[in-house]
Amino acid sequence: MSRPYEEILEGATLPRSAPGERHEKICARLHREMAMGINGLASTQLLPSRTRIEVSRTTALCPDLALVMAANNKLFLAVEIISRDDHQPDTVTKKEIYEKIRVPRLWIVDPRYDNVEVYQSFEFGLQLKTILAGSEVLTDKLIPQFQIAIADLFAAG
Description:
- By secondary structure, the chain is of the alpha+beta class.
- It is about 20% helix and about 40% strand.
- The chain contains 3 helices and 12 strands; from the N terminus they run ββαβββββαβββββα.
């Protein structure tokens, strides 16, 4: 059962509702596939869902999925699964924070449209690399064993 949680975004406390059932199923699928995808990669650690990550004195984020570098606990990949009734913090505010802290990878998973926006950091901030849907496959060259078909990620049941 999901629980409400809170994040601190640039000094402002943001109470978040407990994620819904579909959100949690998508999150569980991503975690399962990512755990298999990083199996044997000693350099990377998968954190439990919504682990609180303090990125500054005034900001603590709780991404739905987070990969950190084992050597320094630095956030490498953040995944935000959008909730229908609470999407603005993830799609605008937190995205700006991820850009500011120069997270190398950000995936925004949107169950409203069954698609995934894939962002990568470059010298001027986060850049949208692609939007995946349908039969396309979510992969990352820096996580070579990870892959999931978008249709499978959003499948019912």
